[in-house]
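Our working data are protein records whose layout never changes between entries. The record below serves as our worked example for the rest of this section:
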Amino acid sequence: MAGFLRDSAEFLPILLQGVGLTIAVTLGALALSTLLGLVWVLMRVSGFTLLAGIARWLVNIIRGIPILVQLFYIYFVLPDYGVTLSALSAAIIGLGIAYSAYQAENFRAAIEAIDHGQIEAAQSIGMGWALTMRRVVLPQALRLALPPYGNVMIMLLKDSSQASTITVAELALQGKLIASSTFKNTSVYTLVALLYLAMSLPLIVVVGRLERRYGRRRPA
């Protein structure tokens, strides 16, 4: 135990630098995935066959390609076509695109849970599609989507470790570098696990509360 505490005092400052990058990747990818997910789902429910078909195929393609391959493609392949990104930017974009498909499916499920009679009522008083979505559908759907959205946030935090494969020095990579140079695998990876847990637990608590508040509630 005393040895672990000594190792913690020595390694934590370095690992905390990785925590900062982990949070940056997670928040950046979360923002991008949310934005793209909303775009995909609005295309899907737009009523235009072409847009709906494009969105459906995009979501299926994104879901069908492993996140690791998407990261490699963005970071290693795009430079061949003149698009060079920093490792951090590539990680945020890659994870954001990968998770946009899951966000889109979450949002779609929430929209489909809205009573169709409300949409018909809105249209009967002269609301167009855009106004109906903005005033009637999306406010209710976003509340219903909160619990799964929280789960996506937790998964994204853990999957941010895949950014290490394209040299982003986030928490997992910092731990690997320290372990390989000191051979103190137990201390290092225990610290890494505890730091991930420290970041995940508050999110788990929030998700639990959201599920209790919104998970079983349905629009009237």
In short: DSSP finds eight helices and no strands in the chain. The longest helix spans residues 2-44. The mean pLDDT is 88.
